[in-house]
Amino acid sequence: MEKLKLLLLAFFFGFSINTWAQKIEVSGVILDEKGIPLPAANVLEKGTGNTVVTDFDGKFKFSASNKNATLIISFIGFEDQTLKLDGTKTNYSIKLQPNTTNLEQVVVVGYGKGSRKNLTTSVTSIKGEELNRGAISDVGQLLQGKVSGLNISSSGDPTRTASVVLRGVSTLNSSQGPFYVIDGVPGVDISVISPDDIATIDVLKDAAATAIYGNRAANGVIMVTTKKGSKDRTQIAYNGYVGWEEVSNQLDMMNADQLRAFTTKNNLNFTPENDKGANTNWQKEILRPGRAASSSHNLSMSGGGAHGNYTASLTSLNKEGVMQKSDFSRIIARLSVEQFAFDDKVKFGLNVTNSKSTYQNVPQRNTVLLQAASYLPVSPVKNANGTFFENFVSPGYFNPAALIEHGTDETKTNNLVGNVTAEVKLPFGFTYNLNIAHQKLTTSHGEFYDSYYSQYNSANFYNNPDPPLTKTLVNFGINGSALRNSYENTNNIIESFLTWDKALGSHKIKAVLGYSWQENTLGDGFQATTTNFPVNNVGFNNLALSNYTSVNGYVVNFGDSKAYQKTRLIGEFVRLNYNFKDKYLLQGTIRRDGGSMFGVNNRWGYFPSVGGAWRVDKENFMQNQKFFSDLKFRGSYGVTGNSSGFNAYTAQFISGSLGTFYYNGQQIGAYGPNQAANPDLKWEKTATANIGLDFAILKGRITGSIDVYDKKTTDMIFNYSVNPVLVPVGTIVANGGTMSNKGIELSLGAAIIKSADFSWSTNLNLASNKNKIVKLTNPFFIGGDSIRRVQPDGGGQTGSTLQIFKEGRPLGQFFTLKYAGKNADGVSQYYDKNGNLTTTPLNGVDYHYAGSAQPKLLLGWGNNFQYKKFDLSIFFRGVFGNKIFNATRADLFRPSTAMTNNILVDAGDESPNDLNSYKYSSRFIEDGSYLRLDNMTLGYNFGKVGRYINSVRIYQTVNNLFVITKYSGIDPEVEQGGTAPGVDSNNFYPKTRTYMFGLNVIF
What we know:
With about 1000 residues, the chain is mainly β. The protein has seven helices and 49 strands. About 5% of the residues lie in helices and about 50% in strands.
């Protein structure tokens, strides 16, 4: 036994000596293609976590585990280089080759990947490190200004997602946003992804790129690829920040002294019930005391081996809103595993992500915003006894601070996405892929308004909905009211496709043949409302404590009868790519889609596309020139569809309650049809023609692309008015309309300065789009070529509308009274329909076209500077040529009501005798153009710190530092999505300015 111990001891001692003896110290310098040293380049020993970073002079010293180790040298913007040690040489000079044109960049194009150099379609790719940074709770905001043609608008509300429109609005229906595909899973809610987990985002713009997704691709497709583990390195990383937000701008309302001086000057008097000698800033009173805090923490672990990789991350995000009771928090857990088997010919994948979010919403948010602007500053927040001040006699006059204090509005969501993938490499260049996915979204929403709300007269408490909805009365019952609902949505997806990738001499062929099956179950849950609670401190979780039966006439609301739906989508698709000598490229796709939500006669649609490209720089006559390093012309045409925005019952006949009628001395419930069936209802189709040019000049120092497109939607679905004799309901959902979008896009990137200590790169994207409603009617249901809409119903504005759907005009066309200044008596006058002056214009009759909410130009301009270990990024974003209807200003521009509602400071020169001054008209249509310094970040990278920390970077970020605009409202970034873009209607949650401090650590 003792001999065995001695032998083992000798063996391990000899093994240790041998291992130690194999270690080798190497050094060197990393240079670019011109011989300029590259500081902060990464040197990694393959298969280990052993790594160093070069110093200011590009030099490094490295302790390799053995004399035959393989080193991987990498630097952003350059091709990775592999160096195999030979045991004899200990000092190396390594030159990296630039990759500034990104020609070899892999782009995710749907059911496969491809090289950017061989694309025939319009695709923009954004790397994770290029996305917007800040206290961002919505992934859509990460792309603001980054992609030409992508119009994204957002307010300061952390509980609301941004509106995203790509290449103009394609439909009059509610769903206008792009279709998201995350790690190959179609239709995933983008909120499940943490910004820190994103590797790349590929935006597919033209129909040739998106047609592979058929009926869901009319509004564009955004492909999100998350980070994967690397078999070459094991890494633990932390990314986090803390910050605070403050309101960047508010309405310029009169304070008590200004308003009192105005009323005195014009012989107006406050009522004693309102005038308590206060000087209240109501816009400030609804804000959170101090600044709103934000924080994010992301911890990730990744690695792998020769036959697999893994990554796991946990993200915690918290964001307070600047308004009281406005708050957002989210926790995201993610796991991704890939395992190879059978000589690496089979790859299995498992991805699981769970996102849990809590939204604390401002109770009666839009009403609070309206009241905070209009409430008199001479009224106090609270009475002397500590109770909230109220004047219940004045109609529509509610203390906004009390509305917040006595209400609760909360939404919780849990979003689980999981998918299992398998990829099998078969003989003869074939590869088979299988993707089975499951998504489950659970939503719980509750509202509680305590007995304080019962004091508000239900005959004059109107809500203040977002346009185009019109305000309605709200009844809060007796002794408090509550609403509670809980719904579950599930999506089950099975997709499989076979790929053939073959090179035959100068010919390369890549073909994809696949099948997609998806079943969605929506709204599986319940809703209930109730009233009459014994105490106030119960909330919406205690519905059983209510006693609604004792309240005469109260009816429990059990929710939407059409909430529960089940739909199925089935698709078959094929794509063929042909490449001849990397010079001539062709692509063709076709998808056949079926959807259960459409008419029984038209549930299937076909969506073809074709594209081609010519890489001019590969021609023989281009080989001797030095100006172009890349030059490619491309063109494409394709047809996509829109199946979103339509529910399972859209094409079906539905009967329901139609109120009551009087019969034989009693009110009898009426029941009958409320939706007509349309068995011929089919897909909306959007056809896009695209011509593009990609180029790189001066050895790739300047790159760019230009795209010109013509996008046309036909068979647009709309709810048409029809003869009740033919259709008893009087309306029918049918195909018929046509929408057109034509535009041009430009993207440029340049490495302006690149030296050992300093570099400056810039990128610019511009986009212009012209939108037009070509046709609004159906041959069988002629209802006129225009529809007046958007009716905010401000004080004294009954019957006034702001916009119109009109053939030959864009979506967001303003149609209103035309202001003509004041007459000799100081009364505002307008042009009638014939161009004559009048002081008594008629709503809808004397209206004129008055500009459009559609922007003429979108701009994004980023600059990145690096000096030694410092880095600075500055990003500007702009929107130009659009109009905004400032209905907020109109409603606060009523001098005659200054004794009952506050007015704007710039209304001080108006006469109370001019009862026309505030009418919705061209007077309140303003230029919505703006240029915003959206993001500025200054960072410092310490590089390797100690033995275990490979990189430490600290940074400070400021978002929305300033905005240059002529718009007089809170902020010109009003809603650009939906069917009522460009309307500021007393509902704008204030934009914020954010200050952040962040830390990135890689172990």
